[in-house]
Amino acid sequence: xxxxxxxxxxxxxxxxxxxxxxxxxxxxxxxxxxxxxxxxxx
Length: 42
Description:
Elements: H1 9-15, H2 32-41
């Protein structure tokens, strides 16, 4: 359980990879309605 272990979180960080142990943060895209509200404010 360390840097060499590919299945652990620490191993994923050292290997620069993602998987079940190290989830990515999903960026929320703005909806069309939100884009229109932003454009009207400007």
